[in-house]
């Protein structure tokens, strides 16, 4: 069985935006902005054998959640949007595609132009 990729984002708008760019099936999990170590463990329990990617907003809330993931899931790969865009949902599609492509995600080619 192929190793499944799992993307962790903050909200549903982030998930919808990334789904448009992705050209492969990827499980996208929303933290809904607030998490604790217990909640992270609960969310990720079904995905313990998957490759984890954390793609959070470049703001205070995203930084807090990211630090928890770094502490409790150091094996997770962290993806970053530029601070000028602040949120994944406001990041241009071409920038999202470039970030995802850099971590070997398949993206729709029209977003690379």
Automatic annotation (TrEMBL):
Residues 4-92 form the Toprim domain. It holds the Pfam family Toprim. This is Toprim domain-containing protein.
């Amino acid at each position: 069985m192929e190793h499944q990729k799992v993307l962790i984002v903050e909200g549903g708008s982030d998930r919808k935006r990334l789904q448009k760019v992705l050209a492969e099936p990827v499980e996208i999990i929303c933290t809904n902005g607030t998490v604790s170590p217990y909640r992270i463990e609960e969310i990720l329990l079904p995905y313990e054998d998957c490759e984890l990617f954390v793609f959070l907003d470049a703001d205070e809330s995203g930084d807090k959640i990211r630090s928890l993931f770094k502490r409790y899931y150091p094996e997770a790969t962290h993806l970053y949007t530029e601070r000028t865009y602040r949120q994944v949902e406001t990041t241009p599609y071409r920038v999202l595609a470039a970030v995802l492509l850099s971590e070997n995600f398949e993206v729709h080619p029209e977003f690379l132009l």
